[in-house]
């Protein structure tokens, strides 16, 4: 953690994700090698991609590299940007039936006409390590065991790592996607937060977000959350990843405006992102029976 002071404003703590990600990877590597010592097969993750988007391909290669680092095999199943929905569905079903594959992930974006949500229903829930199958979200909402989307689980992991008290806390999640906002709202509810979910039709966003003790931004709009959106002393988690003109990334939160007001804030990059990848690997080890 790094402390920031801005003039006479109170210090805000930077909740960095890289250390937590390294700890999750180390623990996962240990589980994998203990499993191998006792004769278990090497966990295997299959990532299905159907895009030519360079940033996405870079991201999936980074998952493969991280997997290799913890002893998990990772297959990039590249169907190309012209893949038809039937082909993607058939691939997901084939991977579901393959006993050597333990985790299956469908990477977005997909070709036009292919719905990620419809296709994710073809992922075997037992292998759904990124919680994309609507069944996984339904089970999560019902309080049943399921893999949560890795990003939503990463937000919880960061809050836990930094000892943020969730029981009874007022939590506001900005964003209601099935990938981040909705599953995260359920995870926070399960941890006894009082949860409000905001979206593009929310009236007076700042009036709602400034009631939060724990504020999560998962929107995809650079700098949407400014100082006026944040209560003094709130813990703020920035899930947003927005490309900058210089080829970098920036979050949904105006970091410089908020760090002196919040008790704690995640940076972008280096906050939620690295933890998300580490959680994906932990889920794959769990799907391979290594608990
Ligand atoms: N770090 C990671 O590992 C990770 C992983 C996944 C996603 N992300 C990032 O997280 C962000 C969100 O991703 P997503 O997939 O959830 O995006 P999404 O599907 O586009 O959802 C965005 C949500 O933000 C809401 N929204 C849009 N404009 C708003 C506004 N002005 N005020 C309040 N709410 C607004 C939308 O409301 P409506 O529902 O009303 O349209 C929607 O619910 C993106 O930047 C994405 O790149 C990061």
TrEMBL record:
Enzyme Commission code(s) on record: 1.5.1.5, 3.5.4.9
Its job: Catalyzes the oxidation of 5,10-methylenetetrahydrofolate to 5,10-methenyltetrahydrofolate and then the hydrolysis of 5,10-methenyltetrahydrofolate to 10-formyltetrahydrofolate.
GO biological process terms on file: L-histidine biosynthetic process; methionine biosynthetic process; purine nucleotide biosynthetic process; tetrahydrofolate interconversion
Domain spans labelled Tetrahydrofolate dehydrogenase/cyclohydrolase NAD(P)-binding: 149-288
GO cellular component term of the entry, any: cytosol
Keyword NADP tagged: yes
Name used for this protein in its record: Bifunctional protein FolD
Tetrahydrofolate dehydrogenase/cyclohydrolase catalytic domain mapped to chain residues: 15-130
Keyword NADP: yes
Pathway the protein contributes to: One-carbon metabolism; tetrahydrofolate interconversion
Pfam family, one: THF_DHG_CYH
Family according to the record: Belongs to the tetrahydrofolate dehydrogenase/cyclohydrolase family.
GO MF annotation: an example: methylenetetrahydrofolate dehydrogenase (NADP+) activity
Keywords: Amino-acid biosynthesis, Histidine biosynthesis, Hydrolase, Methionine biosynthesis, Multifunctional enzyme, NADP, One-carbon metabolism, Oxidoreductase, Purine biosynthesis
Residue sites binding NADP(+) per the record: 175-177, 241
Subunit structure: Homodimer.
């Amino acid at each position: 953690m790094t402390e920031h002071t801005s003039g006479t404003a109170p210090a805000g703590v930077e909740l960095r994700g890289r250390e937590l990600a390294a700890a999750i990877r180390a623990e996962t590597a240990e589980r994998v090698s203990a499993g191998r010592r006792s004769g278990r097969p090497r966990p295997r993750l299959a990532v299905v991609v159907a895009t030519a988007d360079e940033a996405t391909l870079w991201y999936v290669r980074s998952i493969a590299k991280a997997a290799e680092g913890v002893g998990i095999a990772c297959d990039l199943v590249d169907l190309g940007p012209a893949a038809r929905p039937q082909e993607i569905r058939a691939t997901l079903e084939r991977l579901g039936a393959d006993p050597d594959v333990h985790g299956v992930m469908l990477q977005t974006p997909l070709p036009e006409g292919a719905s990620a949500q419809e296709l994710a229903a073809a992922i075997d829930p037992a292998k759904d390590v990124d919680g994309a199958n609507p069944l996984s979200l339904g089970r999560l909402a019902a309080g049943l065991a399921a893999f949560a989307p890795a990003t939503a689980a990463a937000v919880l992991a960061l809050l836990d790592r930094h000892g943020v008290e969730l029981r009874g806390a007022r939590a506001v999640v900005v964003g209601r996607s099935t990938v981040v906002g909705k599953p995260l709202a359920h995870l926070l509810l399960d941890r006894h937060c009082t949860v409000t979910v905001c979206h593009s039709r929310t009236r007076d966003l700042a009036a709602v977000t400034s009631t939060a003790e724990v504020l999560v931004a998962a929107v995809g709009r650079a700098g949407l959350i400014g100082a006026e959106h944040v209560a003094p002393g709130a813990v703020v988690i920035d899930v947003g990843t927005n490309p900058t003109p210089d080829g970098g990334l920036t979050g949904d939160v105006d970091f410089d405006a908020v760090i002196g007001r919040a008790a704690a804030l995640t940076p972008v990059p280096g906050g939620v992102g690295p933890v998300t990848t580490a959680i994906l690997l932990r889920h794959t080890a769990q799907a391979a029976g290594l608990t």
